[in-house]
Amino acid sequence: MDNEKKIEVFNSLIVINNDRIEGYKTAEAEAQETDLKMLFSDMMETSVKNRKELVEEVKNLGGTPDEGTRVTGKFFRVWMDVKAAFTGNDRKTILDSCEYGEDVILETYKKTLIQDHQDTNSSEQAMLNKQYSLLKSDHDKVKQLRDAMAN
Q1: How far apart, in Å, are the Cα atoms of 4 and each of 9, 13, 17, 64, 93?
Q2: How does pLDDT run across 25-36, given as a tens digit for each residue?
Q3: CA dist 98 to 22, 36, 68, 70, Å?
Q4: How far apart are CA 44 and CA 122, in angstroms?
Q5: How would residue 75 be classed by pLDDT, with cut points 50, 70 and 90?
Q6: Where would I find the H helices in the chain?
C-alpha cells in the first residue's frame, strides 16, 4: 500500500475514534451513576490515545490528519441523546447504545486489519492490533455491565 492509501486508512480510523470520543462525552453526560461516568471517561481516554498514535502515523507518512467526525457518528450521538431523553436515562438503554457503538468500531478495525494486513508494515500492524485489543476490552466491559442488567 502506498503512503496515500495508508493515510486514507489511518484517517478513517482517526475519524471513528473521534466519533467514539464524542459518543462517550454524550454517554457520560447522560449517565446518572458514577460508575458509568468513570467507565465512559476511561473509554474516551482509550480513543484519545488511539487517535494520538494514528495522528502521529499520518504525519510520519507525510499526510494531514483528519480532525472531523462522520455524519453517521453525529447521527448516532443525536440518536443516543434522543433515546436517553425518552427513556429517562435508563442504564440498560444507555449500555445498549454504547455496545452498538463499540460493535461498529470493532468491525471497522477488524476490516482494516484483514483488508490492509499485507500493505502495512509490522510496526503499523502492531499499533492497530494493540488498539483493537484495547477497544475489544472496552467493548467487553460494556457488554458485561449490560448483560448483568438482564440477569
Answers
A1: 9, 15, 20, 10, 40
A2: 888 887 888 999
A3: 12, 11, 20, 17
A4: 26
A5: low
A6: 3-30, 34-60, 71-87, 91-115, 122-150
The yes-or-no verdict on residue 55 having pLDDT over 90 is yes
Alpha-carbon gap, residue 6 to 56, rounded angstroms:
13
| Separation in Å, CA 119 to CA 5, 22, 113 | 9, 30, 10
Q: How many residues make up the chain in this entry?
A: 151
Note whether 79 and 101 are within 8 A (CB).
no
* Calpha distance 80→90 (Å, rounded): 12
Dist CA 48 CA 51 (whole Å): 5
The closest alpha carbon to 124, from 47, 61, 45, 65, belongs to 61
CA-CA distance, 113 to 116, in Å (whole number)?
6
Handedness of CA 144, 145, 150, 151 (dihedral sign): positive
Please work out, in degrees rounded to the nearest 5, the angle formed at the alpha carbon of residue 26 by the alpha carbons of 138 and 33: 70
